[in-house]
Amino acid sequence: MVYLRRFIWFIAFRLVLICLLAGMLVCGFFMCLNIANIYTILDEGMEKRVEVILTREDAQELNKCFHYEFLSNDAAIAGAFNGTSVYGDYTITGFDYNLTIERLWAWPWDNYATCTVVEEVKSISGKVISNRAGEVSATIPKWQGGRYDITLVKDNGAWKIRGMQQTAIIMEPDENSDDAIDQPIL
Question: Measured in Å, how far apart are the chain's first and last C-alpha atoms?
Fold first, then answer.
C-alpha cells in the first residue's frame, strides 16, 4: 500500500509539472504572437501616418492600423487635409523615418496593449508647389518628433492603435549637428 501511494504521488507530481510547463509555453507563444503583431502595426502604421501628413495621399490605408476614434480626433491628420499643415505648401517626394520601440507589453489574455515609442523623421525631401514658390521658404520645415505612450486594442482579431499621447518633444538636429534635443512635455 505504501508503494502504491508513493507511485501515485510520483505520477501526480510529474503530471502537475508537465501541465505547468505546457501552460507557460502556450502563454509565452501567444504573448510573442501578440508582440510581433503589435510591433508590425506600430512600425507600419506610424510611418504611414507620417506619410499621409506629409503627402496627403492614401489616407484610407490608415484604417488598417488605427482605430476610427483615433483617426477622427488626430489633429495632425486633420491639419494635413484642412490646409493648416506646415507641409501643405510643399510637394514631398521622400523622407527618412525611424521608429524606436522602447517598451512594449501585451498579456496574452488581454485585448489591449501599451507601449512607448520614439518617432523621428531625420530628413524630408521635396519642393515648394509652383503657385506658392515666391511666398514660402524653399526649405521644408523639420518634423517635430517625439516620445509617445501608445495604447492599442484588439478589434475583431486585429490590433489597432487607439490612443497616442506625446510625452516628450524631440527637435530634429540641423544637418551640421548629430544631436537631437529631447524636451519633456510638462
Answer: 72
Looking at the structure of the chain, the number of domains it has is 1
CATH number assigned to the domain comprising residue 44: 3.10.450
CA 182, 162, 25, 6 torsion-angle sign: positive
CB atoms within 10 A of CB 184: 8
Query: 122 near 172, Cβ under 8 Å?
Result: yes
Q: Look up the domain containing 129 and give its range.
A: 2-184
CB 169, CB 152: distance < 8 Å: no
- Per-residue pLDDT of 106-140, as tens digits, reads 888 889 999 999 999 988 998 888 787 778 888 88
For 85-107, give one letter per residue: b (16+ CB within 10 A) or e.
Answer: bebebbebeebebebebeebebe
β-partners of residue 121 are 97
Classify residue 10 by burial, with Cβ atoms within 10 Å: 0-12, 13-18, 19+: exposed
d(CA 54, CA 120): 14
**Stated pTM of the model:** 0.80
Q: Angle at which helices 2-55 and 75-82 pack, to 10 degrees?
A: 30
**Residue pLDDT, tens place only, 157-172:** 899 999 999 999 887 6
* 54: helix, strand or coil: helix
